[in-house]
Design a protein that fits this description.
globular; single chain; mainly alpha
């Protein structure tokens, strides 16, 4: 992996602040919907809103088709190791686990599933974490 340009990442333009506000607004609205209907908010959050918004911002910034395609494909593979969390976390909560303990355990499990996914996919020629 090449050196990450942190200075470039953390320099914000007015357009970046608009993106930040709109992206945060989506999260807040979905959270507000959850107060009224948890299934509807689950549906909204299950939609790849974050990825779609990110791809719109990437397109607006002039990113090429190849980078957008790589982002979409990478997102597909990175979502897979997160899916078990959405079954394990509710099971833990319903079986007496405290929220923070269950959340921490699921974070550790998800990291493990992530690295397992990276290892397995490398055997099939898909490298999610190029050197």
């Amino acid at each position: 992996m090449s050196r990450i340009p942190w200075q470039q990442i953390f320099s914000f333009t007015p357009a970046d602040l608009v993106k930040l506000f709109l992206s945060a607004a989506i999260i807040v609205i979905v959270n507000k919907v959850q107060l009224v209907n948890d299934r509807l908010s689950a549906l909204l959050i299950a939609l790849p809103l974050t990825s779609l918004v990110a791809m719109v911002w990437m397109h607006q910034a002039g990113q090429g088709s190849e980078r957008l395609a790589n982002h979409a494909e990478g997102t597909f593979w990175f979502v897979l190791p997160t899916l078990p969390m959405f079954l394990i976390l509710p099971w833990m909560l319903r079986h007496g686990w405290g929220f923070w303990t269950a959340l921490a355990a699921n974070c550790v499990l998800t990291v493990g599933f992530f690295w397992l996914t990276v290892f397995v996919l490398r055997r099939f020629g898909i490298d999610l974490m190029p050197k």
